[in-house]
Amino acid sequence: MIIxxxxxxxxxxxxxxxxxxxxxxLSGYSDWPMRILARRQGACYALCEVMxxxxxxxxxxxxxxxxxxxxxxxxxxxxxxxxxxxxEQFAAGxxxxxxxxxxxxxxxxxxPVKKVLGRCRxxxxxxxxxxxxxxxRRTRDVVxxxxxxxxxxxxxxxxxxxxxxxxxxxxxxxxxxxxAAITVHGRTVEQRYIGPSRWDFLREVKEHxxxxxxxxxxxxxxPHDCLRMMAETKIDGVTVARGAIGNPWIFSQVKxxxxxxxLPPPPTLFEQREVILEHYRLATELYGPLRVDAPMRKxxxxxxxxxxxxEDVRQDFxxxxxxxxxxxxxxxxxxxxxxxxxxxxxxxKAQGSLECG
Length: 357
Fold this sequence. Notes:
This protein has helices spanning 32-40, 53-58, 87-100, 114-118, 129-142, 161-176, 199-209, 223-233, 249-260, 269-287, 293-303, 310-319, 323-333; strands spanning 10-12, 15-18, 21-23, 46-47, 51-52, 78-83, 104-109, 149-154, 181-185, 213-217, 237-240. It is of the alpha/beta class. The chain has two domains: 10-263, TIM Barrel (Alpha-Beta Barrel); 269-333. Strands 3, 4, 5, 6, 7, 8, 9, 10 and 11 form a nine-stranded parallel sheet that branches. A two-stranded antiparallel sheet has the order 1-2.
């Protein structure tokens, strides 16, 4: 049983975040609509989906790609996550994120996806501390002083002693270079998303860095998970990834649980319907009516996890290809109010490639 606990407010350098449970960067998911809905449910900070430095440097203002850098006033503070191979190009990509208006620049040294590793990006950098730290220094040098730079890491390439030494070399070197916070995922790159995230390693890292800011990641699917990670590791914040897809309520639930010790009931079917409709509206605003259905279909599948008839609703959303189809699903499955169910990760745990970190 978790009793109420007072959580310290999270700051990332000059950026005051507040409640320390935030939304992670999620490849293919954490676009503007997802971030806005998470914010309205209590997430005080969120990161965009990871972008390649090469893509940003070559990016033109076109309707098909403009959504990657789209921000609104309600979106702040917001982090822009960057991934790449070459230090010089990485710094140029960081400047693009600064120009777009992101409040924090986050460096991805954690992505375990094979095609990313094969191109010497993401988690690959944990095998080469010299290059990783050159990326950090160049990025910190080019980004204006008032904008914090952060790093996302895994606990190493694998569980060898050499990998561990390289992890700490990068961790310490990044802080020495002026990084404001580091997010640590408790799995290795080799693990990808298989096996448990080692929270004891997060505790070890926090003890190692003292008063420097460490944010934890890995296996956060329920409000209880978030508070338990904070309590067990003494880290400064946690970042919810797959557990937030189609479940923006996790942020209001964990806040209420922290303040009162009581977990609120899951959103009712009418409450779910309202948020799903708003998500569709925001996505239409971002992508346009002709392109909205493909990105929304994957969200509908995740929203289904809170419906008592999960499998049937999931299949209905998977078949939706137009606004008319969406409204038909809502009229069929959400027309009568009733209790929802807690999303416990059942719709996400088997699909690890969503989170590139």
